[in-house]
Amino acid sequence: MTGKVAIVGAGPSGCYTAQALLKAAPELEVDVIDALPVPYGLVRYGVAADHQGTKAVTRQFDRIFTRMGGQFFGNLHIGRDLSLDTLRAAYDAVVLTVGLSGDRRLGIAGDDLPGVIGSARLTRALHEHPDAADLPDLGPTPVIIGTGNVAIDILRLLVKTPDELAGSDLGPGPTAWLARQDIRRITIVGRSPAEAARFDPAMIRELAGLARIDAHVAPAPQSDGAIAGLLNTLAAETSGPLPVDFRFQAAPRALRQGSDGLLLDLDTPDGPQTLTASAILTAIGFASDGQLADETAQACYSAGWFRNGPTGALPRCREEGQALAARILAELTPDAARPGRALLRDIPGTVDFAHWQAIDTFEKSAAGPDRCRRKLARRADLLTPPPLQDLAS
Ligand SMILES: Cc1cc2nc3c(=O)[nH]c(=O)nc-3n(C[C@H](O)[C@H](O)[C@H](O)COP(=O)(O)OP(=O)(O)OC[C@H]3O[C@@H](n4cnc5c(N)ncnc54)[C@H](O)[C@@H]3O)c2cc1C
Question: Is the pTM of this model over 0.90?
Answer without folding.
Answer: yes
